[in-house]
Here is the input.
Amino acid sequence: MLKRGFTLLEVLIVVIIIGILAAIALPQYVTTLEKSKSAEAATNVGSIRSALDRYWYQNGAITTTISNLDIDNPNSVTNKLYTYTITDGGTTSTTRIYTVTATRTAGGNTYTVQWKQDSNVSGKLLRSANLGGPTS
Here is the structure.
C-alpha cells in the first residue's frame, strides 16, 4: 500500500519551527523599521541645523522657534514621525552652542535623534540606544 501526505505530528513540528523563527525575526524587523524611520529625523535635523547656522551668522543669536528659520517647519507636517525642538546651550555672538532634538514615541518606546553643536567647528549627530546609538 502506497502512503502519501504528512502525518499530523510532522505538520505540527513544521508549524512550531515557523513560529519560533517568526518570534525571533519580528523584533529585529521592528528595530530595522525604526532605524529606517530615523532617516527622516536625521535629514530634518540637518536642515534645521543648517538654517540655525545661517540665522546665527545673520543675527548673532540662536532662535529656539523653528518657524523663525528660513525652512519649512517639520513640526507642521500632517503625518510627521518626529517632533523637533531647539535648545540654546549658551550661544553668544561669537560661539554657537545648541542642540536640535527629534523625538518619536511608538509602541511604548521613545526614539531620539540629536545634533549637539558644542563650538563653531564641532558638533555630533547622536541616536538613542534603541536606534543603534551609543549606550552612554
About this structure: The chain has a mean pLDDT of 90. Residues 11-131 form one domain. The first strand starts at residue 83 and ends at 88. Strands lie at 83-88, 98-106, 109-117, 123-127.
